[in-house]
Specification:
With 348 residues, the chain is of the alpha/beta class. The strands form 3 sheets. The protein has a 5-stranded parallel β-sheet, with helices on one face. Strands 4-5 form a two-stranded antiparallel sheet. 47% of the residues lie in helices and 13% in strands. It binds adenine (ADE).
C-alpha cells in the first residue's frame, strides 16, 4: 500500500505532537491552580474535592489517582491542582522515560510524605518498571538491587507515603494489577460548548484579550470539546484580530480566522477531514483497519487512535466495528455525501 497521502488538494497536515509542545509552552499561565477555578468535569471535581478535603483533615496523603480520557482535557492540569490543593510538591515524569527500575528508584526514594508523583502516559511503562511499581504503590517499599547475576542481592527500602497520579489516554491498555492499585479512577469526558466558552473567556481575561459572548461561543463550538484546542484557537484568533481588526474578537472575526486556519464549523481540522475523506473515497466508506488508514494518509496509527479518532467516534462521524472503521452518516453529510441509508429512509 502506498505511503503517499492519497488526498490531493489538502495542505500538509500539522503534526499533532508539535502542536501539543507549543500548547504546553503557552498553557502554564492559563491553567487553573485550584479545583474551584477548574471549569467542567463536574463529577470528577466534586469527588476529588471530597477526597482531598478528607485527606487534609486526617492529615494523610491522598490515595493514588488514575485519570483517563482523550488528550487535552486537563489530566495534567488536575494532577498539578491535586498537588497544589494538598500543599505538596509534584514530580512530573512520563511512561516512555522510564525504561528500567533504575530510572524510577531515585525518583521514588526522593519523594517525601504526601508528595505527588505524576506519571503521564502511564500505559507506556515498560513491564519491568510497572512490576517494580506494584510494591512501591501498595506497601511503599522497593527493592534496591546491587551486584550482578548470581551474586545480585536485594535490599528492601522503605519509601514515604507518596501519592501517585497516573494519566492515560488508553485505560484499556493498563494491566489489571496496575489499575487495581489506584484508589480513585476518573474518566474525563469532552467539554460542552458552554463549558468551553467559559474556558475561552477565562483565558481571554488572563491574556488581556477583548472578546464578546458570541466570539467565545464560536471558538468553543469549534474546539472539539477540548480546552487545549480552545486555548490554541483563542491564540490564533487573537493574532488574526490584532493584524486584521482592532483586536476585539467577535463571532464574525472568530469565524474568519478559524476558517483561514482550516478549522471548519464542526471544529474538524485538516487531519480530521483527511481521515474521513480517506475512509470515504479510498475505502468506499469502510470498514477499514486503522493500520491501513494510517499508511494511506502517512500518519502514525497511534496519533489516529489517541488524537483523531476519539472525538470523531464520540460525535458519530466515524463508527468502530469489529471489521474496522466505517464512516457514519454525520461524517458522510459533513463531506457532502448523502447518508448511507438515503435521505428518505432517514426520515422514517
Ligand atoms: N484551562 C484549560 N482547562 C481548563 C479548565 N478545565 N478550567 C479552567 N481553565 C482551563
Amino acid at each position: 500500500m502506498s505511503r503517499e497521502p492519497s488526498i490531493k488538494g489538502e495542505d500538509q497536515v500539522e503534526e499533532p505532537i508539535e502542536e501539543r509542545k507549543e500548547d504546553e509552552r503557552f498553557a502554564w499561565n492559563l491553567r487553573p491552580l485550584t479545583l474551584s477555578e477548574y471549569i467542567g468535569q463536574k463529577d470528577v471535581v466534586e469527588s476529588l474535592q471530597i477526597a482531598l478535603t478528607a485527606a487534609l483533615k486526617r492529615n494523610e496523603p491522598v490515595e493514588h489517582i488514575l485519570l483517563h480520557g482523550p488528550p487535552g482535557l486537563g489530566k495534567t492540569t488536575l494532577a498539578h491542582i491535586i498537588a497544589n490543593e494538598m500543599q505538596s510538591k509534584i514530580t512530573h515524569t512520563a511512561g516512555p522515560a522510564l525504561e528500567k527500575p533504575i530510572d524510577i528508584v531515585g525518583i521514588l526514594s526522593n519523594l517525601d510524605s504526601g508528595e505527588v508523583l505524576f506519571i503521564d502516559e502511564i500505559h507506556r511503562l515498560s513491564r519491568t518498571v510497572e512490576e517494580y511499581l506494584y510494591s512501591a504503590m501498595e506497601d511503599f517499599e522497593v527493592n534496591f538491587i546491587y551486584g550482578k547475576g548470581a551474586f545480585a542481592k536485594t535490599l528492601p527500602y522503605q519509601l514515604k507515603h507518596f501519592t501517585m497520579v497516573g494519566a492515560t489516554t488508553r485505560a484499556g491498555m493498563l494491566t489489571p494489577p496496575l489499575r487495581d492499585r489506584f484508589g480513585m479512577i476518573y474518566h474525563l469526558d469532552y467539554y460542552s460548548p458552554d463549558e468551553l466558552a467559559k474556558v475561552v473567556k477565562r483565558s481571554a481575561g488572563i491574556l488581556g484579550v477583548s472578546i464578546d459572548e458570541d466570539g467565545s461561543m464560536e471558538i468553543a463550538k469549534r474546539s472539539r470539546g477540548t480546552p487545549r484546542i480552545a486555548n490554541r484557537l483563542l491564540r490564533r484568533v487573537r493574532d488574526y484580530a490584532e493584524v486584521n481588526a482592532d483586536g476585539k474578537i467577535t463571532r464574525k472575526l472568530a469565524d474568519e480566522a478559524l476558517s483561514k486556519e482550516g478549522v471548519d464549523h464542526a471544529g474538524l481540522d485538516r487531519l480530521d477531514r483527511m481521515y474521513l475523506k480517506t475512509i470515504m473515497e479510498n475505502y468506499n466508506g469502510g470498514p477499514v483497519g486503522v493500520e491501513a488508514l494510517a499508511a494511506t494518509i502517512n500518519e502514525e496509527s497511534n496519533t489516529l487512535v489517541d488524537v483523531v479518532e476519539p472525538f470523531l467516534l464520540k460525535t458519530g462521524f466515524v463508527i468502530r466495528t469489529p471489521a474496522g472503521r466505517r464512516i457514519g452518516d454525520t461524517g458522510r453529510n459533513h463531506l457532502g455525501y448523502p447518508s448511507e441509508s438515503g435521505p428518505q429512509q432517514r426520515l422514517l
